[in-house]
Design a protein that fits this description.
39% helix, pyridoxal phosphate, 364 residues, transaminase activity, binds pyridoxal-5'-phosphate, DegT/StrS_aminotransferase, alpha/beta, Aspartate Aminotransferase, domain 2, 14% strand, Aspartate Aminotransferase, domain 1, three-stranded antiparallel sheet, PyrdxlP-dep_Trfase_major
Length: 364
């Protein structure tokens, strides 16, 4: 079976973790600081603040920008649930804007019509590793005085016009084991704003700057030195991982682009896409339904996944909250997308097996 995701870990990570175990400092310490410095320098921001998940990164980034009860945050409905939930955690309301059909990212041309006097921030998601159209988003944010919080949980190292995502606004990253670089559980917030960075550090650690003096309501969302030690090793490998993802994606596209009814990923000319996922659309013209194709691929040893089968605004919990809106492009994408293995452990032979499997299914 070719898996849809697989952590790539070497002896470096194992030795780094053992070293931390020997040190006896298991919680947040020197390794976390080192990881923060290295990550900030990689993304190109002044500060990076480590937390224990991507969800925590989003939650604290929103809080650090002062977002809460009565505020609205505009985001995409076509993302992992954490994107919407992090907004709900703060007491604010997620407002969903439909996606662009080609990129699957929120459509900046539909953004402005969602802005109200309550809007405080825009939360774009760089889905599958493809950056959003940041020029337009930053212009709209500046015009309406809104914060920009980037969900870059799938886009470590992706670039828009040569600039890394996570450095336009306040960046949020995840190091969950399926992501482009991993720590187990883990997350990071990147920013150029000193005040935001300081707030983040307090929020993740019980609202204290000085031990046992609590200036605000904080949480325990700290990263461990064990996770940071893995992250430091992974960060060194990230460019190679991304290069492999990109070349796997190119090989898949070469093999699939001429199949009638299969729409291969569209890449904006001004971006570096890091292919967290390689996601095709299976349109009606393909003649075989997306779900049947998926079953057949699994039968032939190719694992696939649907990211995401239900947009956030259609989730049962969001329906209960009163979301009734129809966002046709996101809903259509949910019915048509299928992600194929593209991660760095996918070999040339695996790619050939995937393409052969499509051939077998079509000729049946
Ligand atoms: C993974 C992911 C998250 C959440 O990250 P966790 O580390 O799993 O909490 C948020 N948004 C997107 C788009 C993600 O892919």
């Amino acid at each position: 079976m070719i898996p849809i995701a697989k952590p790539v870990l070497g002896n470096e990570e194992i030795e780094a973790v053992v070293e931390v175990l020997h040190s006896g400092r298991l919680a947040q310490g020197r390794k976390v600081e080192e990881f923060e410095e290295a990550f900030a320098s990689y993304i190109g921001t002044r500060y990076a603040v480590a937390v224990n998940s991507g969800t925590a990164a989003l939650h604290l980034a929103l809080l650090a920008h002062g977002i809460g009860e009565g505020d609205e945050v505009i985001t995409t409905p076509f993302s992992f649930i954490a994107t919407g939930n992090a907004i709900l955690f703060t007491g604010a309301k997620p407002v969903f804007v439909d996606i662009d059909e080609k990129t699957f990212n929120l459509d900046p041309d539909r953004l402005e019509e969602k802005i109200t006097p309550r809007t405080k921030a825009i939360l774009p998601v760089h889905l599958y590793g493809q950056p959003c159209v940041m020029d337009k988003i930053m212009d709209i944010a500046a015009k309406h005085n809104l914060a920009v919080i980037e969900d870059a949980c799938q886009a470590h190292g992706a670039k828009y016009k040569g600039q890394k995502v996570g450095s336009f606004g306040t960046g949020c990253f995840s190091f969950y084991p399926t992501k482009n670089m991993i720590t187990g559980e883990g997350g990071m917030v990147t920013t150029n704003n000193k005040e935001i960075a300081e707030k983040l550090k307090m929020l993740r650690n019980h609202g204290q700057k000085v031990r046992y003096f609590h200036e605000m309501l904080g949480y325990n969302l700290r990263m461990t030195d064990l996770a940071a030690a893995i992250g430091l090793c992974q960060l060194k490998k990230l460019e190679d991982f991304n290069a492999k993802r990109r070349s796997n994606a190119q090989d898949l596209t070469e093999g699939l682009q001429d199949l009638k009814g299969i729409i291969t990923p569209y890449i904006l000319s001004e971006v570096k896409h890091v292919f967290h996922q390689y996601t095709i659309r299976v349109s009606e013209k393909f003649g075989i339904s997306r779900d049947t194709l998926r079953e057949e691929l699994i039968r032939l040893g190719i694992n696939t996944e649907i990211y995401y089968p239900l947009p956030i605004h259609c989730q049962p919990f969001y329906r209960q909250l009163g979301y009734k809106e129809h966002l046709p492009r996101a809903e259509k994408a949910s019915r048509e997308v299928l992600s194929l293995p593209v991660h760095p452990a996918v070999s040339g032979t695996d790619i050939q097996d995937i393409l052969d499997a499509f051939g077998k299914i079509i000729s049946k």
